[in-house]
Amino acid sequence: MTRPFLVVQLSDPHIGADWGEGDPVATVAATVAAVRALELRPDAVLISGDLADHGADAEYSQVRELLAPIDAPLHALPGNHDDRAALRRRFGIPGADAEPVQYAVELGPLRLVVLDTIRPGEDPGALDAERLAWLETALAEFPDMPTLVALHHPPVKTGIPIVDEIGLPPADRRALGDVVERHPQVRRLVAGHLHWTVTAELRGRSVFVAPSTYVQARLDFGTEEVRLSAEPPGFAVHAWLDGELVSYALGIP
Q1: At what angle do helices 57-67 and 24-36 cross, to 10 degrees?
Q2: Which of 52, 170, 244, 246 has the highest CB neighbour number within 10 Å of its CB?
Q3: Which domain CATH number covers 179?
Q4: Residue 240: exposure state from Cβ atoms within 10 A (0-12, 13-18, ≥19)
Q5: Phi, psi of 201 (to 5 degrees)
Q6: pLDDT > 80? residue 1
Q7: Distance (Å, rounded) from C-alpha 235 to C-alpha 220?
Q8: What is the pLDDT of residue 97?
């Protein structure tokens, strides 16, 4: 059996947050220790949004410092708490200032395509025609290369009204599905934002939502507000092996 190619996904660390449920710096440090304890070293790290809670440069500098011991290439995308320009400054992401953070990179046997879903200053996400056109073009460039599409807001409906209100609008989810359906090389869409581990489908393609390295949300279909649970921080590992992609959600003791 060949060695799997590993992409570690960290999400929603919210450095700088004080939600009354633990220290986000301590939980990221614990997550990094857990990643370093894996039997195999990760080949790449994806951070799927909400790196910082207030979008401050100092928060992004702290994230980079905390993640440095993993010693793997870092690929970040913005969440609704992030500031695009500050994220670019601290992570060397291409593009200008506050324009959408969208790029593609080859990760060995996989291609990572990052799609920006944020509306600056708002919790809900959006995918306008311009962003979807960019995705269409990016996917068309390498039609035969297995691809991960990464975004912050998951293109799924949870059935929890308060959560769905701060997600992607139904029309935007359908439009994204139209694009993905035309590109069979997309093997999985990966996201964050929900502070849960969730698996779903979009037009027959698997969607994987990673847990937060900070705190998790409580699953309650009748709630009118987002509440936190006692579940531990977590992260995801996506393993590419012999043409198959397997995703794992791991909790931090």
Answers
A1: 30
A2: 52
A3: 3.60.21.10
A4: buried
A5: -135, 150
A6: no
A7: 22
A8: 87
How many structural domains compose the chain? 1
DSSP characters over 17-40: ---SS--HHHHHHHHHHHHHTSSS
Residue 181 has which token pair? Answer: 């359906």
Which among 234, 239, 207 has a CA at the least distance from the CA of 43?
A: 239
Residue type, position 216, single letter? Q
Amino acid (one-letter) located at 6: L
145-175 per-position pLDDT tens digit: 999 999 999 999 999 999 999 999 999 999 9
CA atoms of 150 and 145, how far apart (whole Å) = 15
Q: 195 near 221, Cβ under 8 Å?
A: no
Q: Comparing C-alpha atoms, which of 76, 125, 64 is closest to residue 105?
A: 76
Domain extent, residue 207, equals 5-251
